[in-house]
Amino acid sequence: MTAVRVLVGTRKGAFVLTSDGQRRQWKVSGPHFAGWEIYHVKGSPVDPNRLYASQSSGWFGQVIQRSNDGGETWEPVGNQFSYEGEVGTHLWYDGTPHPWEFKRVWHLEPSLADPDTVYAGVEDAAIFRSTDGGQTWKELNGLRHHSTGGYWQPGAGGMAVHTIILDPTNPQRIFIAISAAGAFRTDDGGATWKPINRGLKSEYVLPDPEASVGHCVHRIAQHPSRPNVLFMQKHWDVMRSDDAGDSWHDVGDGLPSDFGFPIEVHAHEPETIYVVPIKSDSEHYPPEGKLRVYRSRTGGKQWEALTTGLPQSDCYVNVLRDAMAVDRLDPCGIYFGTTGGQVYVSPDSGDHWEPIVRDLPPVVSVEVQTL
Amino acid sequence: MTTASSNIRLELPYHLRTLARIDSEVQLEILGPVTQRAVLDALEARYPMLRGTIRDYDTQQRRAFLRFFACNQDLSNESPDALLPAAVASGAEPYLVIGALAGG
């Protein structure tokens, strides 16, 4: 039986949406962890019943929850994220040195090979790994101790590792992205990292627009069949790399705005990518009040607006960086959640859209499991 | 020589009760001096999922948006090793962990 399970993190809890392969009729479960910010929920590709959730609040800090039954029941696991070695400083908004302080887990990335291994991208920017199902967490401090670390500065939303991509063909290679330090790659399992930002330009943001670090990368996406091809939604610009991030070029021409947060790749078409443009860095809502997903079938540069079933007037929601996902059914389903509390699905690769739910709390993240 | 024990009462904010799956106030046995540190150590020993939610893991400082009260007094800025009021130690009054009323 084919089915999909959509894992939705919101500002006030997590929701689990399930449907069969038709993706027309949905069951809604939740809110789980009601009242808490759920930054991310993601399942293990090895054991789809094993889920991890990042649960946090300004009052009570960070909790990690784990499910062994596909989200029906949960148990808190380890929540101690202590920086290893010298804590040191990064730059604060005003350019002064500021000590690294753990605030929350932004993104959880379960291992491709082991359900008990999971990576956590955190704020202030660092990456942790657990190998015991989330009970204990150890920092891979080669990232934070990179020679440029002292110069990293937060973006408006904080300084966080928000994207983690595990290379399906090389277990030693991981890509990450930090707002606002840029993209980095490890080729030794996380011991050492190198910035991969050559070709990115951040005019009016950095003193040197082409600096090796300091770019506000919003999201990176990869198709598993092409691990060296990466797509990036940046603070302005949609970029592409064909050499595992060693160089980038702009593929955003044709978009009404190349500012946005999420970017995703079609499950079966590695050159088909999706973005959700918003007006500008000062106006985080769709241009002209029209919610449009843009699709390129050529890996960028040629774009078409996808609007059927999406509001085309008076719509001023945003889609956050971790709030878009694809399933592996055929046709590929595309999903995204908005800051207005809607979760939309297109069961036909973006040609038509329908709301699954309309009135959730603001959506922070969306992941999809194909069962 | 036996160490004196005290049975104290503790109340948690809603979200921490939910996290620890507690329906009502908590009753804890404290061996030795009844201090804020001893009470919170005992709480976390019984409910490990509460570690890090009331006190920062590394500094053991009270989290910024929480307050500690007892006997109509704000004890938030008192030394964690200062003795709590006798009424708390005797169980007559509860020790309160309260979330600050802030935000949405």
How is this structure best described in words?
The complex is a heterodimer of chains A (371) and B (104). Helix content of chain A is 0%, strand content 41%. Chain A has strands at residues 3-10, 13-20, 27-32, 37-43, 51-57, 61-67, 75-76, 89-91, 97-99, 104-110, 118-123, 126-130, 138-139, 160-166, 174-179, 182-186, 194-195, 217-222, 230-234, 238-241, 249-250, 259-265, 273-278, 293-296, 304-306, 324-326, 334-337, 343-346, 354-357, 363-370. Chain A is globular, with a radius of gyration of 19 Å. Chain A is built from no helices and 30 strands. By secondary structure, chain A is mostly beta strands. Chain A has one domain: YVTN repeat-like/Quinoprotein amine dehydrogenase (Methylamine Dehydrogenase, Chain H), CATH 2.130.10. Chain A has a 4-stranded antiparallel beta sheet, with no helix packed on it. A 4-stranded antiparallel beta sheet of chain A has the order 4-5-6-7, with no helix packed on it. The mean pLDDT of chain A is 96. With 104 residues, chain B is of the alpha+beta class. Chain B has one domain (5-99): Roll (Ubiquitin-like (UB roll)), CATH 3.10.20.30. In chain B, 21% of the residues lie in helices and 25% in strands. Chain B has 3 helices and 5 strands. Chain B has helices spanning 14-20, 36-46, 86-89; strands at 5-11, 26-31, 66-70, 73-74, 94-99. Chain B has a 5-stranded mixed beta sheet. The radius of gyration of chain B is 13 Å and the shape is globular. The relative contact order of chain B is 0.24. Classes of the chains: A mainly beta (371), B alpha+beta (104). Chains A and B meet through strand 6 of A and helix 1 of B.
